[in-house]
Amino acid sequence: QVQLVESGGGLVQAGGSLRLSCAASGSIFSISYMGWFRQAPGKQRDLVASIAGGGRTTYADSVKGRFTISRDNAKNTVYLQMNSLKFEDTARYYCKWVVNGGNGYWGQGTQVTVST
């Protein structure tokens, strides 16, 4: 069993920055995939950024050049650095890990609100 806890969200003005963290606990023997998703009211939950076990990263076109995903395996933590934030980035951000050969886990999310 794995538990994920997101932190770092908050209220920020357009153009500002936030750094989200997702800390994992439990029995993790291998990591296939770590991703950040976001969901605004009335919208689908969509992939924002991901990093595979081998280190390959993927970004949604809407955040390329502004967001960076990274990880610290020693701390069991994945990060999302968010720069040049826009109003349309406002959403609840969720962390997802796929571990131990294919088991997926979600955190409960952290709210990011960008004011204009």
Describe this structure in words.
By secondary structure, the chain is mainly beta. Helix content is 0%, strand content 59%. It contains no helices and 11 strands. It has strands at 2-7, 10-13, 18-26, 31-39, 46-52, 57-59, 67-72, 77-82, 91-99, 103-106, 110-115. The strands form 2 sheets. Strands 2, 4, 5, 6, 9, 10 and 11 form a 7-stranded mixed sheet that branches. Strands 1-3-8-7 form a 4-stranded antiparallel sheet, with no helix packed on it. Strand 7 (67-72) and strand 8 form a beta hairpin. The model has no long low-confidence stretch (mean pLDDT 96).
List the helices and strands and how they pair.
Layout: E1 2-7, E2 10-13, E3 18-26, E4 31-39, E5 46-52, E6 57-59, E7 67-72, E8 77-82, E9 91-99, E10 103-106, E11 110-115
Parallel strand pairs: 2-11
Antiparallel strand pairs: 1-3, 3-8, 4-5, 4-9, 5-6, 7-8, 9-10, 9-11
Q: What key attributes describe this structure?
A:
116 residues; mainly beta; 0% helix; 59% strand
Brief synopsis:
By secondary structure, the protein is mainly beta.
